[in-house]
Amino acid sequence: MTGDCLFCKIVAKELDSETIHESDSVLAFQDINPAAPTHILVIPKKHVASAADLGGDDGPLLAEIFETIGKLAKDSGVDSYRVVTNVGSDAGQTVHHLHFHLIGGRSMSWPPG
Ligand code: 5GP
Ligand code: ZN
Questions:
Q1: Less packed terminus of the chain by CB within 10 Å, N or C?
Q2: Closest atom, ligand 1, to C-alpha of 39
Q3: CB-ligand 1 contact for 17 (6 Å cutoff)
Q4: Cβ atoms within 10 Å of 60's Cβ, excluding its own
Q5: pLDDT of residue 3
Q6: For a substitution probing ligand 1, which of 18, 20, 31, 93 has the most ligand atoms within 8 Å of its CB?
Q7: What's the pTM value of the predicted model, to 2 decimals?
Q8: How far is the CA of 91 from the centre of ligand 1 (A)?
Q9: CA–CA separation, 23 vs 3, rounded Å?
Q10: How far apart are CA 85 and CA 93, in angstroms?
């Protein structure tokens, strides 16, 4: 847990979230401001500031995160979806705790804005 981190507070249950899935290392919850019918955030419970801060030891954690994303997409009934992680403010990162957006349930354009 790092002091002021919003998602560390969600992990610690100091802030409410609509939890969808939880394991020892990973938490998935509904995005508070959904950008699509399905918009789930999948995060490591440990604080990692962004994908730029992942290391070689994080392989199993990432494998679990992507396995979770696949299962949650299936559970949500979406077979076409986007997985996004923003790194840095210019890319749109507003919460500096690594999170993967699982977004689906509508058609999307490319490239993103
Ligand atoms: P970012 O912009 O950093 O890639 O994504 C942050 C995401 O976190 C946004 O989609 C935003 O709606 C979501 N978010 C921000 N604050 C909260 C919160 O308190 N609870 C939940 N469930 N989602 C949040
Ligand atoms: Zn954090």
A1: C
A2: 10
A3: yes
A4: 9
A5: 78
A6: 31
A7: 0.98
A8: 14
A9: 22
A10: 8
> Ligand 1: does its nearest atom lie under 6 Å from the Cβ of 32?
yes
What is the DSSP code string of 44-72?
ESS---SGGG--GGGHHHHHHHHHHHHHH
| 1 alpha carbon – ligand 2 mean position (Å) | 6
21: number of CA atoms within 13 Å, CB side? 20
Span 25-39, average pLDDT: 98
Smallest CA-to-CA distance from 40 within 94, 82, 102, 91 is with 102
Whether residue 31 has its Cβ less than 6 Å from ligand 1: yes
**Catalytic (active-site) positions:** 99
Distance CA 27, CA 47 (A): 12
Rounded Cα–Cα distance for residues 101 and 40 (Å): 6
Sheet with 100-104, side-by-side order of all strands: 19-22, 26-30, 38-44, 100-104, 81-84
